[in-house]
Each structure stands twice: as structure tokens, then as C-alpha cells.
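During the reporting period the student researcher (J.K.) took over the structure-prediction task from the postdoctoral fellow and processed the backlog of single-chain submissions. One of the processed entries is reproduced below for the supervisory committee.
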Amino acid sequence: MEQAIIFSRSAISPLAARDDLARLEAERVVARREGLLDVRAYTADLEAEVEYQRGLYVAAAVSEIATLRAELFGVQEG
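J.K. obtained the following C-alpha cells:
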């Protein structure tokens, strides 16, 4: 199931989003080590959070790149 990502410039920085994603990836490693990946509800929730956070990270990074490009070279039209 795809989730829409609602993003605003003040919502989260790419660095914060990347840190959150790294924490979720670390949680997955611990869950694997502890045998929690056999718990379907937990695994599904964790995977959904990772997917959402990855999308948020990409959206934040692309937005920051576009903003920087506009500041350097002007707003793109078309």
C-alpha cells in the first residue's frame, strides 16, 4: 500500500530524515538478531515505517536540492 508523503520545508531536514531512517535500519538489525522478524505484525509495521521514512528522506533531499538550485540559478519554469 502506497502512502502519500506530505512534506513542507519546515517539516524535517534531509539529515534528520536520514538519521531517523538509520535508527529504523538499526532496529531491524536488532529485531533480526533477537528473532522478532518472525512476528508478522511487528515486521509489517517496521517495514512500513522504513518505507515511509525512506520516502520522506528522498522528498526532503530533492526539495533541498531544488531549493539550492533555484537560489543559485533562478526558478525553473516549464
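The committee noted the following: The radius of gyration is 16 Å.
J.K. will present the remaining backlog at the next meeting.
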